[in-house]
Amino acid sequence: MNSTGPFDPRKEAHLLSAYVDGELNSQDVDRVEAHLADNKESRREVDRLRQFNQVTDSLRLKEAPAEEWEIFWSSFVNRAERSIGWILLTVGVAIIGIWSLYNLLATLVATDALPLYVKGGIFAAAAGVLILLFSVVRERIHKRSKTRYKDIIR
Predict the structure, then answer these.
(1) Alpha carbon distances (Å) from 60 to 56, 57, 91
(2) pTM for this one?
(3) ∠38-53-4 over CA atoms, to 5°?
(4) pLDDT digit string (tens) for 66-82?
(5) Which of the ends of the chain has fewer CB neighbours closer than 10 A, N or C?
(6) How far apart are the C-alpha atoms of 132 and 136, rounded to whole Å?
(7) Cβ neighbours around 122 below 10 Å, total
């Protein structure tokens, strides 16, 4: 804090909360207490902060029943297994797809049996499929991260 001079409640109101929490150094404690001696509104604010601390200190989290923990852990394990399975499946399909596409394109380039415009059409179709696939995956990822309702349990 390291402020000097008189306490300014407009600029240093946060010090009242720090005062109640016992987080001020002795110099700031003296400044705040001198201000509280003269300012009735600030004394009321300190009283409100102390009451707020008492209320929040008395709050306790309710422990979830054992059945809820069992449901949570079983669904957690199921989701983790399925997530890992989908990731592995996706990676495997992507590797096989890329390898197959590479071999197809290498074969098309190497063959002289097809006219150039047919090869171009096949390349254009393959590029279009890849662009559309990339677009759909990107959109799904974007929507999933931006949905407001993803944490709602039905």
Answers:
(1) 9, 8, 45
(2) 0.40
(3) 40
(4) 888 888 888 888 888 99
(5) C
(6) 6
(7) 14
